[in-house]
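Supplementary Methods, section 5.1.

A reviewer requested that the exact input to the structure prediction be made available. We therefore reproduce it here, unchanged from the version used in the analyses.
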Amino acid sequence: QVQLEESGGGLVQAGGSLRLSCAAPGIIFRRNVMGWYRQATGKQRELVASMTGDGTTNYADSVKGRFTISRDNTKNTVYLQMNSLKPEDTAVYYCNAQRAAIGINAWGKGTLVTVSS
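The structure derived from this sequence is encoded token-by-token as follows.
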């Protein structure tokens, strides 16, 4: 069973920055697509950013130019650097690991990010 461990959420003022981390021990990390999703109150979970093992990235339009996803395959860890945060970025952020070939689609428990105006 894949376990993902997020950290780094918290309260920040608008315009500030946070960095989320997600450790994924026990998987062949580089073979998984790692992603960050978020779910605001009353809304559906949405993709924020993802990165393949070879470094190809994908971002939601709402975060392009502000958020950066990165991964350290030697530490089995994926990061989400969030800059210029806005109140509308407030949500629970979830780490995700996918490897379709063997049916992996794992989620972390989530970490709350609150951006005050």
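The CA atoms of residues 30 and 105 lie 15 Å apart. These observations are discussed further in the main text.
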